[in-house]
């Protein structure tokens, strides 16, 4: 049995996801949070195995939230569930520690499989293509490239910090900066 | 208007009080120059031409000289020659122009030999000061008003642009944040039926996928409009971007004529989609883009050496579908063919630029 917490700011998707997951044997949706404030109490209360996390959770974004979730003592698996070009989320998703990246347009069957796969401790994500790597290369400082390389290889953060002789805080800071540079722009209404 | 008023004042004064032996001719000259100058100033180019301003000033000061006294019936008429420079020039320049005008007027006044010594009587001094200062005051007020109007117009234009931009952002946001999420939810729920729903559900699912793709395109367009830039420039930019991001070698040759905004938009999106397909899906390594056209039609031919067209459409592929829809919208002919011996693809787009009404009938 896989226990799941949903985070999405749109009610239609929360309802749809809950219904769809409940219909699948072996998957148990424990609840749905619509914002970061709702997320933490729900996370502490339910201790899920997998968090299905929308990329767009104002005012934060899914990547920042993912890092914060992963900083917990016994972090759940995180599946980034996005309506954006999912390929472009792969690299920032890996840097943020997500176990999977999934597009919202995928059919329910693929979503079930993805949840089971990340729950087993494996990764689900679109391939990191050369195009994506070159784009990342163009946007990042050359100092950050070794971190990117190791993160893509699946090296744990502690090991990256030791190898590069960085403090944990320094690495966190660098990772967050890299994510900020790589993240996908969302159309945000201008404050009037 | 003001000039006509000045002319009427001049003519009335001159008939009321004889100033020279040739008053009749002065009236004729006034009427003639009023007609000529007003006709000339009707054109926007003449309005802004300093040469015309100088000529106008010379004529009106000439009239003052011919009226033999600097306290001339033509004084008001002369001051109207300041209207165009004062409203056409920037504030500072307008004031400088009016000072120049006063100096020229003073020269004419002295030339009439009736100026005398303005300091010998208080009334005389007052009249002289008034005559010399009025042009400057008129120019300052006109320039100030014109400047305000200009700023108001600019401000309004900027506000309009910002409003359009904000509206675009809002629509993009709503499409993405609300409509698309609902479609995703519907798709997800339907897809959970997983084959049990039969053909009808499969059809609904594919429609929902197409709707998502359409919304993605609309969001992209709302966020990055062409902004009136020419299509060939944009295509070269796109080709450069793809060149950097992929192993394909893209060469763009030729140019395209100017197109109306709607046609330009669709033409660019079709061609950009064709390029993306060649790079992403056909795995082409060499892509040649040929642009051509004249005032009546434009043509884009994109040849690649990739895997050719897929036998069956990839699931979830709406690129071709949307290209065809766009082509139909602008009355263009889109032709996709596999290259010689099934290698590569040739995409041909012919866009008519003449009024499409005649074709719409047939």
Quick structural summary:
Chain A has 192 residues and is α/β, with parallel strands linked by helices.
Mean pLDDT of chain B: 83
Radius of gyration of chain A: 16 Å
Kindly state the percentage of residues in helix of chain B: 55-70%
By CATH reckoning, the class of the largest domain in chain A would read Alpha Beta
Number of separate domains of chain B: 2
> Helix count of chain A?
9
Shape verdict of chain B: elongated
Assign the CATH architecture of the largest domain in chain A: 3-Layer(aba) Sandwich
Shape descriptor of chain A reads globular
Model regions low in confidence, pLDDT < 50 over at least 5 residues of chain B: 356-362
In whole angstroms, the N-to-C terminal distance of chain B is 54 Å
Alpha-beta classification of chain B? alpha+beta
Name the beta content range of chain B: 5-15%
Question: What does the model show?
Answer:
The complex is a heterodimer of chains A (192) and B (362). Chain A is an alpha/beta fold and 192 residues long. Chain A has 2 domains: 2-119, Response regulator (Rossmann fold); 130-182. Chain A has helices at residues 11-22, 36-46, 62-70, 86-95, 108-119, 130-139, 145-152, 157-164, 168-182, and strands spanning 2-7, 27-33, 50-54, 56-57, 60-61, 77-82, 100-103. In chain A, the strands form 2 sheets. A 5-stranded parallel beta sheet of chain A has the order 2-1-3-6-7, with helices on both faces. A two-stranded antiparallel sheet of chain A has the order 4-5. Chain B is α+β, with helices and mostly antiparallel strands and 362 residues long. Chain B has 2 domains: 1-225, no CATH class; 231-361, 2-Layer Sandwich (Heat Shock Protein 90). Helices cover 65% and strands 10% of the residues of chain B. Chain B has 13 helices and 5 strands. Chain B has a 5-stranded mixed beta sheet, covered by helices on one side. In chain B, helix 2 (23-41) packs antiparallel against helix 4 and helix 7 runs antiparallel to helix 8. The longest helix of chain B has 70 residues, at 122-191. The model of chain B is unreliable at 356-362 (pLDDT under 50). At the A-B interface, helix 1, helix 5 and helix 6 of A face helix 8 and helix 9 of B.
């Amino acid at each position: 049995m896989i226990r799941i917490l949903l985070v999405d700011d749109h009610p239609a998707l929360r309802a749809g996801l809950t219904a769809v997951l409940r219909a699948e044997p072996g998957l148990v949706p424990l609840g749905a949070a619509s914002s970061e404030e709702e997320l933490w109490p729900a996370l502490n209360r339910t201790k899920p195995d997998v968090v299905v996390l929308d990329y767009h959770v104002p005012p934060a974004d899914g990547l920042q939230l993912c890092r914060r979730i992963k900083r917990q003592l016994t972090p759940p698996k995180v599946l980034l569930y996005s309506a954006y070009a999912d390929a472009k989320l792969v690299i920032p998703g890996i840097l943020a520690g997500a176990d999977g990246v999934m597009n919202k347009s995928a059919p329910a069957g693929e979503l079930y499989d993805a949840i089971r796969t990340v729950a087993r401790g494996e990764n689900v994500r679109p391939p990191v293509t050369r195009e994506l790597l070159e784009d990342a290369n163009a946007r990042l400082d050359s100092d950050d490239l070794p971190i990117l390389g190791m993160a893509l290889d699946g090296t744990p953060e502690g090991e990256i910090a030791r190898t590069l002789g960085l403090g944990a805080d320094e690495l966190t800071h660098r990772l967050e900066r890299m994510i900020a540079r790589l993240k996908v722009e969302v159309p945000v209404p201008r404050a009037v | 208007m003001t000039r006509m008023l000045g002319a009427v004042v001049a003519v009335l004064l001159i008939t009321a009080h004889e100033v020279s032996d040739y008053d009749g001719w002065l009236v004729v000259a006034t009427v003639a120059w009023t007609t000529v100058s007003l006709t000339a100033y009707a054109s926007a180019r003449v309005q802004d031409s300093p040469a015309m301003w100088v000529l106008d000033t010379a004529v009106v000061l000439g009239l003052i000289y011919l009226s033999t006294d600097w306290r001339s019936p033509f004084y008001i008429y002369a001051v109207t020659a300041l209207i165009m420079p004062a409203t056409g020039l920037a504030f500072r320049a307008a004031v400088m122009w009016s000072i120049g005008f006063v100096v020229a007027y003073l020269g004419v006044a002295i030339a009439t030999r009736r100026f005398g010594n303005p300091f010998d009587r208080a009334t005389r001094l007052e009249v002289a000061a008034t005559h010399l200062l009025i042009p400057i005051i008129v120019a300052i007020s006109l320039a100030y008003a014109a400047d305000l109007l200009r700023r108001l117009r600019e401000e309004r234009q900027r506000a309009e642009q910002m409003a359009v931009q904000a509206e675009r952002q809002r629509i993009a946001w709503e499409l993405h944040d609300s409509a698309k999420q609902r479609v995703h939810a519907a798709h997800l729920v339907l897809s959970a039926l997983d084959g049990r729903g039969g053909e009808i559900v499969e059809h609904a699912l594919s429609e929902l996928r197409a709707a998502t793709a359409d919304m993605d395109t609309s969001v992209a367009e709302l966020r990055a409009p062409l902004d009136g830039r020419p299509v060939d420039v944009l295509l070269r930019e796109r080709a450069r971007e793809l060149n950097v991001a992929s192993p394909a070698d893209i060469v763009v040759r030729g140019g395209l004529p100017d197109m109306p905004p709607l046609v330009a938009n669709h033409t660019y999106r079709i061609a950009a989609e064709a390029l993306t397909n060649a790079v992403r899906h056909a795995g082409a390594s060499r892509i040649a883009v040929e642009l051509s056209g004249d005032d009546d039609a434009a043509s884009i031919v994109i040849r690649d050496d990739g895997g050719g067209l897929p036998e069956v459409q990839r699931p979830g592929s709406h690129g071709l579908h949307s290209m065809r829809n766009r082509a139909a919208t602008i009355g263009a002919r889109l032709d996709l063919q596999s290259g010689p011996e099934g290698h590569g693809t040739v995409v041909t787009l012919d866009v008519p630029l003449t009024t499409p009404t005649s074709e719409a009938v047939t």
